[in-house]
Amino acid sequence: MRQKKDWFMLFTLICGFLILGFILLPLIEMVFSTNITSLKDTISEKDVRASIWLSIYASTWASIISFLIGTPFAYFMARKQFAGKRLVESIIDLPIVIPHTVVGIALLSVVGKNFWVGKILYQLGIRMIGSVPGIITVLTFVGMPFYINTVKDRFEGIPPRLEKVSRSLGASSLATFLRITFPLAWRSVIAGMIMCWARAISEFGAVVIIAYHPMIAPVLIYERFESFGLNYSRPVAVWLIIISLSMFILLRLVTIPRGKGK
Amino acid sequence: MITIKDLYVQLPDFSLEGITLSLNKGDFFALIGPTGAGKTILLETIAGLLPAGKGQIWINRNEITCLPPEKREIGIVYQDYALFPHLTVKRNIEYGLHFHKKRRKDVEKYFNWLIERLNLVHLLNRYPDTLSGGEKQRVALARAMIIEPSLLLLDEPLSALDQNFREEIQEMLKSINKETKIPFLMVTHNMAEVLSLAKRVGVINKGRLEQIGEIKEIFHTPKTPFVAKFIGMKNIFFVSFKKNKALINGLSIQLPREVQELEGFLAIRPEDIIISRRMIKSSARNNFQGFVKEIINQGFLFEINIKVGKTEFKALITPTSLVELELKRGTSVFIAFKSTAIHIF
Fold it and tell me: How far is the C-alpha of A55 from the C-alpha of A49, rounded, in Å?
């Protein structure tokens, strides 16, 4: 017996194809309209290599900083109930919702010489504007929420009873975290770092305000597009995609669950 | 010896009030109460995982009320076992040893004895998610026992197990308790577990201990209506007393002794009520005529609800008796019970 066609389910499927096409078509078109020679020529340019390297370098630092500070805080947020927790969660999410240029302007007013933070940094000899530390600061600002949220979700999924048993067996709260909680969460830690890294490497608006130079890859792409046009900026963009994707795939492979001890 | 004195725990939506109990070396103490009575909270407070609001906890001559859990030497075995999923059975069991410095030879000997005793030798290299419920329970037990705790807390140790594992674990718990002399404190909502494992029992309800004593004592002389009901007394009535008589809805019941109070509770175990088709002649018994209101099949036994005037009594009989007495709904019957089978509180 033939069933009547379910038009709604067909519609949901069509929407799916539309979305996939929407995402993939521009990327595929960009990659395939770029020829191999121009890719080769572009990567041999010193400016391009420097900007891509700086993007990777600064984003990696943003991930590492998020890991170091974000992990304990994510654990705290996963385990403690307190008044105003919702508010704190919203604050963590703020960098996601604030427009990027606004982030740049806001950070600029804090690290500028007219504000005490800026003054202290200046006296310590740390220049934030137009510098690598400045870029790392911006990227950490925009990337951190992705790290914290990913890791916090995982911590919440680990039964507190495992930690309680560990404590009863003589482990302090730190030993419990290091021996039980963290080993159970490490895949999400990696996933969170990838999310943070991916968000950081794509940042343009906030960085361009704090540091036009030294140039990260998105700024370089923008500059080349403005000055010389599409054909000149596209190979850099393709290189950025290739490097980001291979990094993404590599790390994903590392974190695929292998049956035991997930 | 473990002593808990007047312990209070205050949580946002629950509180434990005035818990006092003590365990001696080798004791197997059961705390029984319905779900939500605060049993797990009490265990976690004793283990130091929840803060005590008031009161004291002592182990031998040391007060541990304010110690963090890792300094208490109290083992806990949860209902869901809470095995560390990323560690093998062996490393699960050895976990506590990282934090307890002991002579290596003694540790090895004890470890071997434990895994032998709990039948875990062949499982050492497995991961928890490949184990059956009974195996998990044995690993959890070994893990808690490896540090030779001064007290072992068991959270519903049998309720998550299949029937066929239950007996095995039951025997194991009993003999480990006997052999190591480590006091066990078990919480459960299952009377059968208490009967088969513990020597002493406390009944907990809504955060309060209603009664503590030997199992026999609790069974024979429940002190509150809740205890009576919880341990399976079904015929509980609010009555007014008149010397050695009690009145329920106009029904006069002969009591074993004179009672001073004017009002109170009276209970009769269903198995102490005898059903007959003819009046049994005996002066020492309470005899009433009624009719069968309902017959409920409980598996091995039948529960018969008998209405006498406005009062309903519940009695238990075997299937054979049911056939012999030819009971049906509406059958007119006599019930009888000895005055000594009556509990007053």
Answer: 10
